[in-house]
Amino acid sequence: MKPTENVDYQHPTFKDQVRFGLITGLLVTIICAGYFFGIPAYWLGWFSFAIAAFSVAGNDAVQTIGTFFESKKSVHWIEKLLVLGSLLVAVHLIGWWIHDGEIHFHRLSVIPEVSHFNLFQLLAPVILVIFTRLRAPVSTTFLVLGLFGGSSIDKMLTKSFFGYGIAFFGALLVWAILAKLDPHEYNEEHVPNPQTELKWARYQWASTIYLWVAWLLQDTANIAVFLPRKLSILEFGTAVFLILLALFVIIRTNGGTIQSVVTEKSDIKWAKAATIVDLVYGSILLLFQAISNIPMSTTWVFLGLLAGREIILNILTYRDLPYLDTFRKVSKDVLLATIGLVVSILVIYVANLFYPTSNLAL
């Protein structure tokens, strides 16, 4: 019997890429065939919802549980699935019950419900799958909700870029204080005390739960937009099952290829560092949740947080490291996200040309 090999999901082989290409092509074919052969919009929406559950959660997993994966590689995947899965069910069940069958937590209140999907809307989750495979931290809000957003797109852009700025400058302030209080802890060669690491490992479970809830309240809408606004108990159960299945795949692949966005950042593998990132990020999301119901890009908020953190830590502690390396890490993430934004706007523009009456706007 051959020993079990550890699969490197962050660096897929050529065969893996070919397999991915074939599956992606099959999904596009099924959607196009269903659309042109007149399959009811209800079923087409469910099919795209299933893909979106994997693509949206897969791309955004790096923001919410990426730090958790990085510092909890020794924790068995069943424990992770039980905690995060149970919380996912509980949050959506409470939302479904309180909001009379709705699971978007008012994020879709400003977005008109569609009775007939256009082809671009149905294909958006597949486009997102491709970006995720390319390790690009794309805004799922812009790429998916942008095709449904109508006149709200400019407001989503404004809120998202404002979120990036708040996260960036907030990170500068938070980690400047932390680095000044204990500069040794943020030194590149620092290895935490095992007892201290164990204590913070417990705290991280709480911070991950906190962030997971904050993210679900913000980004479930990016998936739920393909479903009827109000779900029956059977529809709700099916939707939650599909999202749970997506979560299972994400956990089993340890975040997939896009996990590298977190892996290369400074000291995220330690529990204390990951815990503080989760708490700051979750607090920013909840702040914007309370400000308005306009959907926003949590991706840009996360990238702003990581950028501010990397820059201030390198300035204050890593004086032997070339600043160009820090700039490269930060700018690469922003560049990929910007490319995703440009592609999203281009897709919306082209969709406007083909479907000028589909409530799309730039």
Descriptive account of the structure:
By secondary structure, this protein is mostly helical. The chain has one domain (41-354). It contains 14 helices and no strands. It has helices spanning 14-36, 41-64, 66-71, 77-98, 119-133, 140-143, 153-181, 194-219, 221-224, 233-252, 260-263, 271-291, 298-316, 323-354. Helix 1 packs antiparallel against helix 5. Mean pLDDT is 81; it is low at 1-5.
What attributes does this structure have?
362 residues, mainly alpha, 69% helix, globular
Q: Count every beta strand, where a strand is a DSSP E run of 2 or more residues.
A: 0
What is the arithmetic mean of pLDDT? 81
Radius of gyration based on Cα positions: 20 Å
Structural class call reads mainly alpha
What share of residues are in beta strands?
under 5%
Characterize the main sheet. Answer: none
Residue runs with pLDDT of under 50 for 5 or more positions: 1-5
Helix content: 55-70%
